[in-house]
Amino acid sequence: MSSEEPKTARLPRCSIVIRCYNEENHIGRLLEGVMHQTVRDPGIIVVDSGSTDGTLDIVARYPAQVIHVTPQEFSFGRALNRGCTATSAEFVVVASAHVYPIYKDWLERLLAPFKDERVALVYGKQRGDERTKYSERQVFATWFGDHPNPSQKHPFCNNANAAIRRTVWGRQPYDESLTGLEDIAWGRAAMGLGYRIVYEPAAEVVHVHEETAARLYNRYRREAIALKGIFPEERFNLWDLLRLFVGNVASDLYHATGDGVLMRSAGSVLMFRLMQFWGTYRGFARRRPVTSGLRQTFYYPRLRARTIPDSEQSRAQHRIEYEDSHRAKGRNGGG
Predict the structure, then answer these.
(1) SS3 for the chain, per residue?
(2) Are residues 173 and 84 in contact, defined by beta-carbon separation less than 8 angstroms?
(3) Residue 161 near residue 135, CB atoms below 8 Å
(4) Which of 14-30 are b and which e, b meaning 16 or more Cβ less than 10 Å from the residue's Cβ?
(5) Given CA atoms 235, 239, 241, 243 in this order, what sign does their dihedral have?
(6) How far is CA 194 from the centre of its chain?
(7) Region of 53 on the Ramachandran plot (φ > 0 left; ψ -120 to 50 alpha; else beta)
(8) CA 319 to chain centre
(9) Is the dihedral of CA 187, 227, 174, 79 positive or negative?
(10) Pick from 14, 37, 173, 59: which is nearest to 106 by CA?
(11) Alpha-carbon distance 207 to 125, whole Å?
(12) Angle at 296 between CA 125 and CA 98, to 5 degrees
């Protein structure tokens, strides 16, 4: 807040920007979780890109501002820029519509590192639930560990559960041309400006991807195209595909055996890892520009019909108790 602003004009400490498209099965639980946060009255901005289901009916039950983006103009970066433009809050929390917080102090934990003025971005832990594919659980365990990192040396982050300092966004908006990984590109730019990225595992959400094989392939292909644009020096060849597929399948099956779920997880492991690395290979192999038609395929695909760590026990009083009725009404969480 500038010195010229009256104290009575103090705005919410944060606004939450939620990008969504046909998320009636998930967004209600996220919004319900926001209502239980220790950070009171955050601004809620829903950027909808053409939902045709009951998503907006659910959003209407909550104190949220809705911004509409047409499918033709949508990109992840453009949706975030629209959301950030709509708020003057000091910090912007970015959440996927298919996540939901575990604890009532999710926002509080996510915002705490910003006490250091050199922090531009904080991202939190993600984990799956009973619907999450086993290999995706392994990905979450690898990317989002239990130990905080107050000064990350690389630009990795994830906009399914993150917060940014809005003044830095004012200097460096999200890249609207990327087909994905706009979060990593933004983190890299922020680090180039002298700011830091913080990982805070206590700011935890459940994140569920309920994807077909085709959609999984599509996700990794568009992210590979984006990664190649952000880091032109990166390569991914057939040898990378083979060794990573074999190595990750072997690791997943080993852990599934230890967890006693090998028989019911083996097929899912093979499918997930094949689509992950085949999609990555095809994305890196693409040489032609990304057309508007391909963007529509990326963002609007045709639909087809672990043990809790001991450290969490001490936070049980902060846990959000979601009612079963939310699931029955399509208010369950799961990008």
Answers:
(1) CCCCCCHHHCCCCEEEEEEECCCCCCHHHHHHHHHCCCCCCCEEEEEECCCCCCHHHHHCCCCCEEEECCCCCCCHHHHHHHHHHCCCCCEEEEEECCEEECECCHHHHHHHHHHCCCEEEEEEEEECCCCCCHHHHHHHHHHCCCCCECCCCCCCCCCCEEEEEHHHHHHCCCCCCCCCCHHHHHHHHHHHCCCEEEEEEEEEEEECCCCCHHHHHHHHHHHHHHHHHHCCCCCCCHHHHHHHHHHHHHHHHHHHHHCCCHHHHHHHHHHHHHHHHHHHHHHHHCCCCCCHHHHHHHHCCCCCCCCCCHHHHHHHHHECCCCHHHHHCCCCCCC
(2) yes
(3) no
(4) bbbbbbbbbbbbbbbbb
(5) negative
(6) 24
(7) beta
(8) 21
(9) negative
(10) 37
(11) 10
(12) 25
Cβ within 8 Å of residue 2, ≥6 positions away: none
Structural domains of the chain sorted by starting position, each given as residue range(s) with its CATH number in brackets: 7-210+310-328 (3.90.550.10), 213-299 (no CATH)
pLDDT of 308: 43
Q: Which tops the pLDDT comparison, 197 or 319?
A: 197
Q: Are strands 43-48 and 65-68 parallel, antiparallel or unpaired?
A: parallel
Dist. CA 317–CA 235, nearest whole Å: 47
CA torsion through residues 206, 21, 275, 222, sign: negative
pLDDT in tens, 80-138: 999 999 999 999 999 999 999 999 999 999 999 999 999 999 999 999 998 999 999 99
Tokens of 281: 């290979």
Q: What is the CA radius of gyration of the chain?
A: 20
Bridge-partner residues for 123, per DSSP?
Answer: 162, 199
Q: What would you measure as the largest C-alpha separation in the chain, in angstroms?
A: 65
